[in-house]
Design a protein that fits this description.
Distance between the termini of chain B: 32 Å
Oligomer: heterodimer
Structural class of chain B: alpha+beta
Helix content of chain A: 25-40%
Number of strands of chain A: 10
Largest sheet of chain A: 6 strands, mixed
Radius of gyration of chain A: 17 Å
CATH topology of chain A: Rossmann fold
Helix content of chain B: 40-55%
Strand order of the largest sheet of chain B: 3-4-9-6-8-7
CATH superfamily of chain A: P-loop containing nucleotide triphosphate hydrolases
Radius of gyration of chain B: 33 Å
Largest interface: A-B, 33 and 25 residues
Distance between the termini of chain A: 43 Å
CATH architecture of chain A: 3-Layer(aba) Sandwich
Chain lengths: 240, 792
């Protein structure tokens, strides 16, 4: 079933719920979420921890499947894909940025990016991607030799180098101090502006929502607020 | 090289110590397999080639005397391919400047131009020409041991006369690959040799003109190893010639010893690698499970990037396969070197012209296969966990370690008494059963190996003690040419330095029970015999029964006999009528196949004045080096062979001590490798996993050694428990392997002394402690302040 507005939306979630079985009890993390991510937009999803943000992001990124409901990516039903198809899908379309960077400690910055480009169909050159995030001179350093902000830049380069259509960011500034965090946000806004990459970022930092074209607030597994920013703030304007 | 392979390489290099220890375990397993199997194949190929080229006989028939012309009457018998006659006798030897008694076997050479059965390989010089009555070809081993060369002179006592002969050459033969001295178990090339002479000389010396006393023959290929169906019908035809014994190849001493060695090699080739690879599987399993657990976020990230489950699992499986490939390659190379060395060692025990150590590509492939297979199996459990993880799960922080209530907590009064330290130790051990099994299993295997070496040492010592301090108490045994009267004993008593003299009456013959038949010798004893006696398992003397046979249990079992059953015995000498005898009792016999009977009964059976066939001497202290005694012994005309019993004991002890020392050193080294591999894996994993706990304890004021004690306590508990199980396992393993290598000639009882058990456990404790020092070093160097900051 293809929803009518799916022709414009990049990602379309309809009535998505997700329940986990934890020991003896079922825990429902998402309850009937409807959501459309438009091509080229920068969307921020805010909400306290436990509100279901990460689960929502994982479902959009084909890392997890909804218990009920449908997920379409450019009209293709990804909720019913096989594991193999999901892997293929992630490889071709999705970029991820994690709170704790998740770099392979035994690989250099450049090699960490190559991990992604080796798989991609039409990747950027790893060096080029690192240059873009301002790490041209730290390419042969191991993660242990980089600061947190630098590590997150490597992670951004790794995600961007694949040239994904959708870039998903899970608390991208969560482990960083305010200044470093802002630098990363600047990078993300810049990628969205210049490359036109669609970005969905989740955060418990409400001020970050002001950077987005559109933001959602999640509470107890439901979308409790949807807002367009008529005027997007510049990174310098926000503080937390 | 892909970046993931680079990751793999760096991770492996970062854990060199661990890698080396696990790889070493794998390599040892493969090396054992390759070396044992290669030695087996080398020996087998050498033997088969030697047998083929020398046309090794399928059967040997000994008789008193048979005219050569009469052989034609047998040649048409079905199944016979070829037969050949020769003259062979035991001889005593005299060499200038040698006082100790030497014995040997003399064989007549076949006529030239004949494709001889049991053909000799000439090592130097040439054969004596036909008709040469002064030339002798000497067995290579004896010549080497005595430094004899072509042209040297040697005196043989043949047929009661001294023959001074000139050495024309040296030779080896496929029928004497393993040449035991009479009454002994080991080759004694200094004291016992082979002598080939012309037919004419043999006929003259033994008064055998136109006759011979042995037939050697080959059967048609289809009768192969079991020529009985062909040779049994010969018996009635041969009995007019004084048939003494019929020996199919499988009972021929040299062949039997070689076969026993081959069987033993195969048994070890199977058991040893199983132990090593089993431990390797356990250790790798623990390591991989931990690695995957540790790299959950990386696995999640890779999957989020679009790496497939297959790619991720393959990445981790490669970790194991690399260890497998490395260990396999080292094992194959090491095994080949070991096999080369064993080929040299075997050449000292077995008389082959050469033993070529070949490279066997199939073994290398199978060894590599075993090693890759074992490491793949060990890797699979951990790698499977990587497969099961969905990318979203992998990215979630792993759930806190489950700590189960331990079994002991069901008894609170006991649990409370343990104190916090031990409670903590037990809880930590119960965290992962697999790890406990792996750690304990490694200790069990390690100690089992040490115990194996100790049981062998204890058992062989026990065997030598039983045999030479309870069963055979004589110093020298004189085998007489013919049965003699009591006078022989009196003669011997007058020899210088002799303290005690006892007669034995040994009669060879055939024992039949139903369709089972066996060539045996009955040893006649009386209550007065003290230098030879049967003993029970506790070393207590068993009196010879008044009537009936006292038979080794294994032989009774083989003939399906029980006490009370009756058997038929046909003596090979004297009155050759079959006699019915009862099995009076069976006993545990460890060396040889002696069946005891009361001498009076045996004498009645033979129906002659025969009373003595062997005279046993007990010497006064110091007399063993008395030249006058040996001089006198060598001059006794009626003596066919002189058995130096104490010399056999010495030889046995020498060989045993040497061989066992090497064996024990190897096994102890192997055990050390296993202990180190296991303890370092467990220790390093514990440090990585419990960084925060360790850091917290350090922050609380615990010193590094106090923290190390936590891990040492766990390792000790696990390893000592494993060691105790290993004591039991090792004993049974040793017992089983001793049973496998038990032969008709030697059956070693499994013995483990308390002292050895203590040694094994102490070694286990020592290894554990030393291996822990490496773990401790890592704790000492740990940056615990940094560890406190590390996020979970």
């Amino acid at each position: 079933m293809v929803a009518p507005e799916a022709s414009q939306a990049m990602v379309q979630l309809a009535d998505v719920s997700r329940t986990y079985r934890m020991g003896e009890v079922d825990v429902t993390v998402l309850r009937g979420v409807d959501l459309a991510v438009e091509t080229g937009e920068l969307m921020v999803i805010v909400g306290p921890s436990g509100s279901g943000k990460s689960t929502l992001l994982n479902i959009m990124g084909a890392m997890d499947r909804p218990s009920t409901g449908s997920v379409h990516f450019r009209g293709r039903d990804i909720a019913s894909m096989s594991d193999r198809e999901l892997t293929r899908f992630r490889r071709d379309h999705i970029g991820f940025i994690f709170q704790f960077y998740n770099l392979v400690p035994t690989l250099t910055a450049r090699e960490n990016v190559v991990v992604a480009t080796e798989l991609a169909r039409d990747p950027l050159d790893a060096a080029e991607a690192l240059e873009m995030v301002g790490l041209a001179d730290r390419m042969d350093h191991f993660p242990g030799q980089l600061s947190g902000g630098e590590q997150q830049r490597v992670a951004v380069a790794r995600a961007v180098a694949k040239q994904p259509q959708l870039l998903l960011c899970d608390e991208p500034t969560g482990a960083l101090d305010a200044e470093t965090g802002k630098a990363i946000l600047r990078l993300l806004v810049d990628i969205n502006d210049r490359l036109g990459t669609t970005i969905v970022a989740i955060t418990h930092n409400a001020p970050i929502a002001r950077l987005a074209h559109r933001y959602l607030r999640l509470g107890s597994g439901r979308i409790v607020e949807r807002q367009f920013n008529t005027r997007r703030a510049a990174v310098e304007e926000i503080a937390w | 090289m892909s970046v993931l392979d680079r990751k793999l390489r760096r991770e492996l290099l970062a854990q060199r110590g661990l890698l080396v220890s696990i790889t070493a375990i794998v390599a040892l397993g493969v090396a054992c397999f390759v070396s044992m199997c290669a030695s087996y194949l080398n020996l087998l190929a050498e033997r088969d080639g030697y047998y083929r080229d020398g046309r090794m006989a399928h059967f040997w028939i000994d008789m008193v005397r048979m005219p050569r012309a009469d052989i034609d009457r047998l040649a048409h018998m079905p199944g016979i391919a070829r037969m050949q006659m020769r003259i062979t006798y035991p001889v005593t030897i005299e060499l200038e400047g040698v006082v100790e008694p030497m014995s040997g076997r003399v064989l007549s050479l076949p006529d030239p131009g004949l494709a001889a059965i049991n053909d000799i390989v000439i090592r130097s010089g040439r054969r004596p020409e036909p008709g040469d009555r002064t030339g002798v070809m000497v067995g290579e081993a004896f010549a080497r041991a005595r430094g004899l060369n072509v042209g040297d002179r040697i005196t043989l006592l043949m047929g009661g006369n001294r023959h001074e002969l000139r050495i024309t050459g040296t030779a080896q033969s496929c029928e004497f690959v393993y040449l035991m001295a009479p009454g002994g178990l080991l080759p004694d090339p200094k004291r016992h040799g082979l002598f080939y002479i012309s037919r004419e000389l043999a006929e003259d010396a033994f008064d055998m003109r136109g006759a011979a006393n042995q037939i050697i023959g080959r059967v048609l290929p289809r009768h192969g190893e079991y020529p009985d169906a062909v040779i049994d019908p010969l018996r009635p035809l041969l009995s007019p010639y004084g048939l003494l014994s019929v020996t199919p190849r499988r009972h021929q001493p040299s062949h039997r010893f070689l076969q026993d060695e081959l069987d033993g090699l195969i048994a070890f080739a199977v058991v040893a690698p199983l132990l090593f690879l089993g431990v390797a599987v356990l250790v790798i399993n623990v390591k991989m499970t931990r690695l995957v657990q540790q790299q959950r976020p990386i696995i999640g990230t890779l999957k989020s990037l679009g790496y497939s489950d297959g790619q991720v699992v393959w990445h981790y499986v490669k970790f194991g396969l690399l260890i497998g490939a490395l260990g396999g390659a080292m094992g194959v190379a090491g095994g080949q070197l070991l096999a080369d060395w064993l080929a040299v060692v075997y050449l000292a025990y077995f008389e082959f012209p050469q033993i070529e150590s070949r490279f066997h590509p199939v073994l290398a492939a199978v060894g590599m296969g075993f090693s890759l297979g074992a490491t793949a199996v060990g890797t699979l459990r951990g790698a499977r966990a990587a497969l099961r993880l969905t990318p979203a799960d992998a990215l979630r922080t792993s759930p806190p370690l489950k700590v189960r209530r331990t079994l002991l907590e069901r008894w609170p009064w006991l649990w409370r008494r343990l104190g916090v330290d031990w409670q903590n130790t037990l809880r930590n051990l119960s965290r992962s059963h697999m790890r406990a099994v792996s750690g304990g299993g490694a200790a069990t295997t390690g100690v089992a190996m040490i115990v194996l070496a100790l049981v062998y040492t204890d058992s062989l010592n026990e065997l030598v003690e039983l045999q030479y301090e309870h069963v055979m108490l004589s110093d020298i045994d004189l085998t007489l040419r013919d049965f003699a009267g009591p006078r022989a004993v009196l003669d011997a008593a007058n020899l210088p330095g002799v303290q005690r003299v006892e007669p034995l009456l040994v009669v060879a013959g055939t024992l039949e029970s139903g369709h089972r038949r066996r060539e045996v010798a009955l040893t006649g004893l009386t209550e007065a015999n003290r230098l030879t006696q049967a003993i029970d398992r506790q070393g207590r003397r068993i009196e010879p029964p008044k009537r009936g046979l006292l038979m080794p249990r294994w032989l009774a079992e083989r003939l399906e006999l029980q006490p009370g059953d009756s058997v038929t015995f046909t003596p090979a000498r004297g009155d050759r009528r079959p006699q019915r005898l009862t099995v009076a009792r069976t006993f545990e016999s460890f060396v040889g196949e002696a069946i005891y009977i009361h001498r009076d009964q045996l004498q009645r059976m033979l129906g002659s004045g025969a009373a003595v066939s062997t005279v046993q001497l007990r010497l006064e202290p110091g007399a063993a080096n008395d030249e006058r005694l040996f001089d006198a012994l060598n001059k006794l005309p009626q003596v066919e062979a002189i058995g130096d019993v104490q010399r056999q004991k010495e030889l046995l002890e020498q060989h045993m001590v040497g061989a066992l020392r090497i064996f024990a050193a190897f096994l102890t080294g192997f055990a050390a490798v296993i202990f180190f591999g296991s303890i370092m894996t467990a220790g390093y994993i514990a440090i990585a996993e419990r960084q925060r706990e360790i850091a917290t304890l350090r922050a609380l004021g615990y010193g590094p050694w106090a923290v190390g004690m936590l891990l040492l306590r766990e390792a000790m508990l696990l390893n000592i428990t494993g060691a105790l199980i290993g004591l039991v396992l090792g004993y049974y393993l040793a017992e089983a392997s001793l049973q496998i290598v038990a032969t008709e000639l030697v059956r070693v009882p499994a013995v483990l002394h308390v002292r050895s058990m203590v040694i094994a456990v102490m070694l286990a404790v020592a290894f554990t402690f030393i291996a822990h020092l490496l773990v401790q070093r890592r704790i000492n160097r740990m940056d615990w302040l940094e560890a406190l900051k590390v996020k979970e």
